[in-house]
Amino acid sequence: MRITKSIPNMFTLGNLYCGFLSIGYAASGQYRNAAILILIGMMLDSMDGRLARMLKADSALGKELDSLADIVTFGVAPSFLVFYTYFYQFDLLGIMVAGLFPLFGAFRLARFNVSTNKSSLHYFVGVPITAAGGILAILTLFGDLVPNIITTVVFTALCFLMVSKIRIPSLKEIPLPKYGTIITIFLGCSLYIIYIGSYGPFPYLIYIATPLYIAFLAYRFVKGKNKKNVD
């Protein structure tokens, strides 16, 4: 029983490890692989919360661990990625600007954790750090096609949008089988195309994370279908 309750935390730790590996790949100049690891972290992050609810393993420890993993994978890792791919040319100023992203992200996470507003189930106040980090990762993947000025504008906008009071619709109440499969197919195709055009060693974690994510969505789809039949 204890092992079952620890499964969501294992996915959260996997998310955190992807963030650490992403920083390492970025430092070694393998920027596409670093960005892909952030996307893998997004897969794992989308699974841990749902698994916790499915297994009835929600805990205060899991929520705190999730925030710590998010700040590394979707805050620190993307900021390093942007620095190494573009801001490095500004030397000290570049690394200082890149460091603002995890600062804004940490504030946004802390504000969310202490929020007691039940309406947060239907919308987020400010852009979630997961989405912001994922956007920066995608911009890096297609860095050859995206002008640097656009990356700079998006980076700056995301910093302020994370701590803004803008209401962003939450997908938590949307049935996973309805939209999750479409998102997974799109993400899988994108990763495959990126893999074909990538250089250097490819992070083999994708071969573990993607099948797990697809299997998870398939299980949710079958479970949701059976529930409808029962009703």
CATH architecture: Up-down Bundle
Could you tell me how far the N terminus lies from the C terminus, measured between alpha carbons in angstroms?
30 Å
CATH topology: Four Helix Bundle (Hemerythrin (Met), subunit A)
- Can you tell me the CATH class? Mainly Alpha
Outline: globular
Q: How many distinct beta strands?
A: 2
Rg over C-alpha atoms, rounded to the nearest angstrom: 18 Å
The total count of helices amounts to 9
Low-confidence stretches: 173-179
Which series of helices and strands comes N to C?
Answer: HHHHHEHHEHH
Q: Spatial order of the strands in the main sheet?
A: 1-2
Amount of helix:
over 70%
The biggest sheet amounts to: 2 strands, antiparallel
Number of domains: 1
Q: Output the CATH homologous superfamily.
A: CDP-alcohol phosphotransferase transmembrane (TM) domain
- Overall average pLDDT: 77
Structural class, from helix and strand content? mainly alpha
Strand percent estimate: under 5%
Q: How would you describe this structure to a colleague?
A:
This protein is an all-alpha fold. It has one domain (2-169): Up-down Bundle (Four Helix Bundle (Hemerythrin (Met), subunit A)). The protein has nine helices and two strands. The chain has helices spanning 2-27, 31-54, 60-85, 91-98, 100-114, 129-141, 148-162, 176-197, 206-230, and strands spanning 123-125, 167-169. Strands 1-2 form a two-stranded antiparallel ribbon. Helix 1 (2-27) packs antiparallel against helix 2 and helix 2 packs antiparallel against helix 3 (60-85). Mean pLDDT is 77; it is low at 173-179.
